[in-house]
Specification:
This protein is α/β, with parallel strands linked by helices. It is 38% helix and 18% strand. It contains 20 helices and 16 strands. The strands form two sheets. Strands 1, 2, 3, 4, 5, 6, 7 and 8 form an eight-stranded mixed sheet that branches. Strands 9, 10, 11, 12, 13, 14, 15 and 16 form an eight-stranded mixed sheet that branches. Strand 11, helix 12 and strand 12 form a beta-alpha-beta unit. Helix 2 packs parallel to helix 10, helix 12 runs parallel beside helix 14 and helix 16 packs across helix 18. The longest helix is centred in the C-terminal third of the chain and has 18 residues. It is elongated, with a radius of gyration of 26 Å. The termini are far apart. The mean pLDDT is 92.
Length: 501
């Protein structure tokens, strides 16, 4: 073996396979060039499987820099055995995850893999250094460092759990898929006939299953989004996110933004645009469980997490999926020291036979448990209605927010005044034969109920800490964030993962 032989093997590994069969995909090293600062990537294991003609054994691993910060990467090469995992593929992934665990490095996964390489099943499947060790390390890293996944192609069989253990999954439409069994296998097992897109495609996972966070049209957009998302997250669980230069909000005018009528819908994203620094709202799972809006943003240069009811979708009621969506996001923010702002306009949890059978109580409990156990500074803003257990789940005063802030359209109570009257006086109302008399009775009782839960009463009884005009809300929150700068965790509190819920 000569130096020339080694150099030739290195060149073959760097070239990889022939990407011409997949004209809609960027080669793996072009994806890495988008992710990392120019010239910063240091690769490991380039010569893996060099003697068997599998360039880098189908996976590129190493450490590069994103805006100067060291970040570990696992990037599958779809041109080498469809990015499938053999024994050395697993070993390379395990080694870089062990380094990320030791050095507390964020990890980006550029996933494009057909799954385990069945011709090397004893290498990837059963042993201590096989695929199970990869998943074990991902769980060990969860909540300790950010883990982001760009899904460029398939993530098949057991390998589908690699994206599932990540904090964010961006999927490329038309190419990305996640599934435990292919349509062919599913048909053999269950008799179902389906397509890959229907069973595990990007849009399905972003809108139905919730396993995908966002859908992108191209490889470069997904990688660029992961790079941007890293700017909102700290290097690890010990650090806060970096401060940025403040910017004015996109929407400085609030006139008519929140209708006084609780039955009129509006887009809570417009409210968010009036609070946060312009152009900084990074929404997460925007296409799934749309009655709840969650995402990261900056407020006067500080990173915050936002959990908001969406009145324009199903009145902002909390369903099974939206409870899970909120619980996972709250857990993410708490893990990485990101203060939480809850924007309340909620009629409560959804009721009815269907949601009870789906376990709305259990899923609601997950959301409430995540919110209650989060130690990061929490702020509750009541925009309009805050009713029933939905008020509790959105960080009611009993869950110790730093402040409960209301704007003048806010109403807090067990239910709407009209509903309360109907519940309390149902028999009395039914007994009044005269229509005008009945209407007058209902109106009088409704006024009594409204007086009992009016905003002045809430301030007088210290239910809310302050009432501010909408255009003063941003400044109020920013000032309170500054006051919480010296926040620290309870000593000895154990680290927690970001649960897939």
């Amino acid at each position: 073996m000569t130096a020339a032989d080694v150099a030739a093997a290195r060149d073959r590994a760097l070239r990889g396979g022939d990407p011409a069969r997949w004209p809609g995909k960027l080669p793996v090293r072009e994806r890495l060039a988008i992710l990392f600062d120019p010239g910063s990537f240091v690769e490991d294991g380039l010569l893996a499987a060099a003697d068997s003609g599998l360039p880098a054994d189908g996976v590129v691993t190493g450490v590069g820099r994103v805006e100067g910060r060291p970040v570990a990467v696992i990037a599958h090469d779809f041109t080498v055995k469809a990015g499938s995992w053999g024994g050395l593929t697993c070993e390379k992934q395990i080694r870089i995850l062990e380094r990320a665990d030791r050095d507390l490095l964020p990890v980006v996964y550029l996933v494009d893999s057909a799954g385990g390489r069945l011709t090397d099943q004893m290498g990837f499947f059963p042993g201590r250094r096989g695929a199970s060790a990869i998943f074990n390390l991902q769980v060990r890293l969860s909540g300790r460092v950010p883990q982001l996944c760009c899904l460029h192609g398939p993530s098949a069989a057991g390998g589908a759990y690699m994206p599932a253990f990540c904090d964010w999954v961006g999927m490329v439409t038309g190419n990305a898929s996640m599934y435990l069994a292919s349509p062919r296998v599913a048909e053999k097992v269950t008799g179902e006939r389906t397509t890959l897109e229907e069973m595990g495609g990007a849009m399905m996972h972003a809108t139905v299953s919730g396993c995908g966070d966002e859908v992108f049209d191209s490889d470069w957009e997904a990688v660029a989004a992961a790079r941007l998302l890293l700017s909102y997250l700290p290097d690890d669980f010990r650090s806060p996110p970096r401060l940025h230069e403040p910017a004015p909000p996109e929407r400085p005018e609030w006139d008519g933004l929140v209708p006084a009528d609780p039955n009129v819908g509006y887009d809570v994203r417009d409210v968010i645009d009036g609070i946060v620094d312009g152009g900084t709202f990074f929404e997460i799972k925007a296409r799934w469980a749309q009655e709840m809006v969650v995402g990261l943003a900056r407020l006067d240069g500080r990173v915050i997490g936002i959990v908001a009811n969406q009145p324009s979708v199903r009145s902002g009621a909390i369903f099974v999926d939206s409870a899970d969506k909120a619980a996972r996001f709250i857990s993410l923010c708490d893990a990485f020291n990101i203060p939480l702002v809850f924007l309340q306009d909620v009629p409560g949890f959804m009721v009815g036979v269907e949601v009870e059978r789906q376990g709305i109580i259990r899923h609601g409990a997950k959301m409430i448990a995540a919110m209650a156990s989060a130690e990061v500074p929490k702020y509750s803003v009541v925009l309009r209605k805050a009713y029933a257990a939905g008020y509790y789940a959105m960080c009611a005063p009993g869950f110790e927010p730093r402040a409960t802030i209301a704007i003048p359209t806010a109403t807090i109570g067990p239910m709407a005044a009209e509903a309360s009257v109907n519940a309390v006086y149902a028999n009395k109302i039914a007994a009044i034969a005269d229509e005008e008399e009945r209407a007058a009775f209902v109106a009088a009782r409704t006024a009594e109920q409204q007086a009992d839960i009016n905003l002045l009463r809430m301030g007088s009884d210290l239910v809310v800490d302050t009432v501010v005009e909408p255009d003063a809300l941003r400044a109020e929150l920013a000032a309170r964030m500054v006051d919480a700068d010296r926040w620290t965790r309870t000593p000895g509190r154990r680290h927690h993962l970001v649960s897939p819920v």
